[in-house]
Each structure stands twice: as structure tokens, then as C-alpha cells.
Design brief:
Structural class: mainly alpha
Strand order of the largest sheet: 1-2
Number of domains: 1
Strand content: under 5%
Shape: globular
Distance between the termini: 15 Å
Largest sheet: 2 strands, antiparallel
Helix content: 55-70%
């Protein structure tokens, strides 16, 4: 086994995950019901926003997070910029705490990811409340939160893959 680090091309840590998040969002938006219950609507772009803030591989990360947010606005019919702000908010906060997150355990990173998810969905709740003057259903929001928090392993894989490819982590 070779000990030399191989580079990780940008399309591999930015493009492929973004396309997979778009594909997963489209699949989960299909109106299929099982026993009268629809599929959950996790925010598949949130693990990317978290991971890209932790590893901070490129200035393209926030741009792609914003594009993913605008895609979600079009997909879910929210006002343009709604999900872009809801995704960029935790991305910026995690980016600010990036030095603190270095070397944390997976469990602690999952807790941070959960806090970022809560910040994102909490901002969305507040924006919806202010725009429509009616509160979104808290049960639906809780299910969306849980479905999104379960996606942490995606962020963890991205972080681990980047650390394995980056010579600074050796």
C-alpha cells in the first residue's frame, strides 16, 4: 500500500456530492405514500454545507451551497433565497467554529451537525412564521429535523475522505 497522498479533484468533493444531493432531493419529492404516509423530506444539502465548512476545501463550497439552496427553493416552492439563507447560516457558523471542531470525536461532530441542522430549520421556521404569520406544523418540522440529523454519516464520509486525501492531515 502506498503512503503517498493522492489529490482529490474538486469535482469529486464538490460536484459529485452536490449532484447526489439534488438526485436524492428529487427522489424524495416524488409524491409516494406508504400506508398513507409520505416520504420524509430531509435536507440532503445540509450534510454538504456542514462538511464543506469543516474541511473548507475551496471558496466554491459556499457558492455551491447557495446554488443547492436555490434549487431547493424551486423544488419545494419556497421564496427564492429561503433555503440558500437557511443553508448558508449554519455553514457560516460552522466555518467560524472550524478550529474548535478540528480533532473532535464523531459523536461530538454529530452533536455539532445536529445543532447546525437545528439552526437551519429554526431559521426556516422563523422566516416562515414572519412571512406567512402562521406557524409551520411542529410535528412535520420535527420529522424533517430527525430525517436530516440521520444524514450525518454522509458529512462524516466527506470529511474523512478529504482528510485521507489531504497531505496536511498526515
Amino acid at each position: 500500500m502506498s503512503t503517498t497522498a493522492r489529490g482529490l479533484p474538486p469535482w469529486l468533493w464538490l460536484g459529485v456530492p452536490a449532484l447526489l444531493a439534488i438526485t436524492a432531493s428529487l427522489l424524495f419529492a416524488i409524491p409516494i405514500r406508504f400506508w398513507g404516509v409520505g416520504l420524509p423530506e430531509p435536507v440532503f444539502a445540509l450534510p454538504l454545507a456542514f462538511a464543506w465548512a469543516v474541511i473548507r476545501p475551496s471558496m466554491l463550497g459556499p457558492v455551491i451551497v447557495m446554488i443547492l439552496g436555490l434549487f431547493l427553493d424551486l423544488l419545494w416552492g419556497t421564496p427564492m433565497g429561503f433555503w440558500a439563507v437557511c443553508l448558508l447560516l449554519p455553514h457560516g457558523v460552522v466555518l467560524g467554529f472550524r478550529a474548535f471542531l478540528a480533532g473532535q470525536s464523531r459523536a461530538m461532530m454529530w452533536i455539532w451537525y445536529g445543532a447546525g441542522t437545528m439552526l437551519s430549520l429554526g431559521a426556516g421556521y422563523l422566516f416562515t412564521l414572519l412571512a406567512t404569520r402562521s406557524a409551520p406544523d411542529p410535528v412535520t418540522l420535527t420529522w424533517q429535523f430527525l430525517a436530516t440529523v440521520v444524514l450525518f454519516p454522509v458529512a462524516d464520509v466527506l470529511i474523512q475522505r478529504f482528510e485521507d486525501a489531504d497531505v496536511r492531515f498526515r
